[in-house]
Design brief:
Blueprint lengths: L5 E5 L5 H14 L17 H4 L6 E7 L2 E10 L7 E9 L8 H15 L4 E6 L4 H9 L3 E3 L13 E6 L1
Parallel strand pairs: 4-5
Antiparallel strand pairs: 1-2, 2-3, 3-4, 5-7, 6-7
Length: 163
Amino acid sequence: MTSKDFIIREIESKDNSELANVVRSVIVEMGAPKVGTAYEDKATDQMFENYQKEKATYFVVEYNNKVVGGAGIAQLDNFEGNICELQKMYFLPIARGKGLGSKLISVCLDKAKELGFESCYLETLPYMKDAVKLYKKYGFLSLDKPMGNTCHYACNVWMIKKV
């Protein structure tokens, strides 16, 4: 199976429960805390509805009619400025190592540019090593402290990139 076997598309309401399962299972698999992460976000169960606002979008990765990953962008919460946040980027093991992370970041950053954002911010955890490596490869730079207030206080890796 190659990346051609996967479809990247905008989220639909029918994707909510599958996507919530993806997010939570990856958080558990990575040994990340459930508190202070997307695991406990109410928005994780209502991803479609959460991205039905101006200057926000979420994309899912589909394989054999099942959601196996996704990522989105939205205005950075509690921040004055034209910066979006790359949000809730998670992949099940079946979708990893196929270049889909790079493709999805590209899709999200293209959309961020189209929506007029100047930069894209993200937060992650240090033990999500492959994700951190991918973000660095993609040109995201490390920050010393968080921007805005995402309420993800367990995430202590902060990065930004101009779009």
